[in-house]
Amino acid sequence: MAGKYFDEWQVGERVAHDIRRTVTETDNLLFTTMTHNPQPLHLDIEAAKASEFGQILVNGTFTFSLMVGLSVGDTTLGTLVANLGYDKLVMPKPVFLGDTLRAESKVIALKESKSRPNAGIVTFLHRCLNQRDELVCQCERSALIKRKAG
């Protein structure tokens, strides 16, 4: 198990996630159609070329989901009880087909659970950067995480 227990985290702790992902046309097309998002910027090359971006724009909810997914192995894999919420989501730069994304996380808060003595709440600041080290997505994730047994 790669995830850490609530009692193993410290505020200010940082993790640079090793897995990177180059976004493909298939990723964007499948995610966009799977989620029934008809936005021409994601699906129509001619409409995208005519936009201010001049090319297909990767679906922002894919970028968000990828950022969280890249973080799971190092943060909550096997220790998560439930994700409680995602806050302050921003996407300051666009993502394009062929961009390679990486993620990093920082623990910004720890809170005892009042209703579950066997778990606590860890709040992560997740950041996603492209191959030019530009921030393309960021959010805070609150996760209910198991305490270490014994």
TrEMBL record:
SUPFAM superfamilies: Thioesterase/thiol ester dehydrase-isomerase (SSF54637)
InterPro entries in the record: HotDog_dom_sf, MaoC-like_dom, MCH/BMMD
Top-rank lineage group of the source organism: Bacteria
One Pfam family here: MaoC_dehydratas
Start and end residues of each MaoC-like domain: 11-118
PANTHER family (UniProt xref): BETA-METHYLMALYL-COA DEHYDRATASE, MONOAMINE OXIDASE-RELATED
Name the record gives this protein: Acyl dehydratase
